[in-house]
């Protein structure tokens, strides 16, 4: 036995050993990153989130406009019918807007809990999703405070394309993109409504600031409106007109329109004094508007005068109709 002989090194064994060590290092490093990742993102700066929501809404709106120029809007499908017998459409614009909003927000705020009218896996999303950096200039001259909250305390409700039926009919004035943030109590605190075809943007962070076009909106729920104007849904105007007259009298004026976002803004801008809806409605149709209405101290409630809760585990359908007003309407 030659104990003093040279030791031959097997090159293949060395390569395998190095590969194993590199793999162990990679696994350990990745595990370490995963452990620290939630800590890095367990809080959200709400000022930055407002900026992100505005940019995301515009990004979704860009997708809506893009698809509006495609033949047959890139394909129209139906999810069934509403209780009123109206087709519940979904288009490529709904899907692409959702993708643009959800995945651009998750890139910046990866732990946010999002609830959307559409549910699309990233592999089914287009390749041209807009990524953006947070640009505070979208706030205009409005100053907002830096407030951090736990990410787990927030729930986002998204309607990537409100008034899809009207979108397919090229009634683009009713189309909006809506994003809302609710706190852990289920109260809506941030709302963004964006009308992509007119570029009109409305937003509010309850108690902290509103978009410049809402600064002069002041609710007055004390003095009554003597000549109320009710805005109702075109899709079932007949039934709700009877409700309106029973509540406000025969002299009430009635406007028909589409899109929850559009009708809420009409009340905020004074073109209607009350928005009434007498059938079930989804919370992603309401949450953004609810946050804005609350921010100007108006009222949004069910027809039973009950507040709407937007907790993540709540029913996503409001069964008892809707009432929106920023001025007290004289009712019978």
UniProtKB/TrEMBL annotation:
GO CC annotation, single: cytoplasm
TM regions (residue ranges): 12-33
Necessary cofactors: Mg(2+)
Reaction(s) catalysed by this chain's protein: a myo-inositol phosphate + H2O = myo-inositol + phosphate
Biological or metabolic pathway of the protein: Polyol metabolism; myo-inositol biosynthesis; myo-inositol from D-glucose 6-phosphate: step 2/2
InterPro entries: CysQ/Inositol_MonoPase (IPR050725), Inositol_monophosphatase-like (IPR000760)
Main location (coarse class): membrane
Keyword line: Hydrolase, Magnesium, Membrane, Metal-binding, Transmembrane, Transmembrane helix
Gene Ontology MF: a single term: 3'-nucleotidase activity
The EC number(s) this enzyme carries: 3.1.3.25
Protein localization: Membrane
The keyword Membrane appears for this protein: yes
Residues the record lists as binding Mg(2+): 117, 159, 161-162, 285
Membrane topology: Single-pass membrane protein
Family classification: Belongs to the inositol monophosphatase superfamily.
Protein name: inositol-phosphate phosphatase
Organism: Polypedilum vanderplanki (Sleeping chironomid midge)
């Amino acid at each position: 036995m030659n104990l003093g002989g040279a030791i031959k090194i097997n090159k293949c064994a060395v390569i395998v050993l190095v590969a194993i060590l590199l793999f162990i290092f990679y696994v350990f490093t990745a595990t370490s990153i995963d452990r620290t990742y939630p800590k890095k993102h367990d809080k959200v700066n709400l000022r930055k989130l407002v900026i992100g929501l505005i940019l995301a809404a515009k990004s979704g709106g860009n997708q809506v406009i893009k698809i509006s120029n495609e033949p047959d809007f890139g394909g129209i499908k139906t999810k069934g019918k509403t209780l009123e017998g109206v087709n519940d459409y979904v288009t490529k614009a709904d899907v692409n807007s959702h993708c643009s909003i959800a995945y651009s927000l998750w890139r910046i705020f990866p732990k946010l809990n999002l609830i959307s009218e559409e549910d699309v896996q990233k592999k089914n999303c287009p390749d041209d999703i807009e990524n953006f950096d947070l640009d505070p200039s979208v706030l205009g001259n409005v100053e907002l405070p830096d407030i951090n909250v736990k990410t787990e305390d927030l729930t986002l409700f998204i309607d990537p394309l409100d008034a899809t039926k009207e979108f397919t009919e090229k009634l683009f004035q009713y189309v909006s993109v809506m994003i809302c943030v609710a706190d852990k109590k289920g109260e809506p605190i941030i709302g963004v409504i964006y009308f992509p075809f007119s570029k009109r943007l409305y937003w509010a962070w309850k108690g902290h600031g509103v978009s410049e076009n809402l600064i002069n909106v002041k609710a007055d729920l004390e003095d009554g409106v003597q000549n109320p104007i009710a805005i109702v849904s075109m899709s079932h105007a007949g039934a709700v007109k009877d409700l309106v007259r029973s509540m406000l009298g025969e002299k009430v004026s009635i406007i028909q329109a589409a899109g929850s976002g559009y009708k809420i803004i009409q009340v905020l801008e004074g073109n209607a004094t009350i928005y009434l809806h007498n059938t079930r409605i989804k919370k992603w149709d309401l949450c953004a508007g609810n946050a804005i209405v609350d921010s100007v101290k108006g009222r949004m409630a069910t027809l039973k005068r009950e507040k709407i809760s937007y907790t993540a585990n709540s029913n996503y359908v409001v069964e008892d109709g809707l009432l929106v007003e920023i001025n007290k309407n004289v009712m019978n």
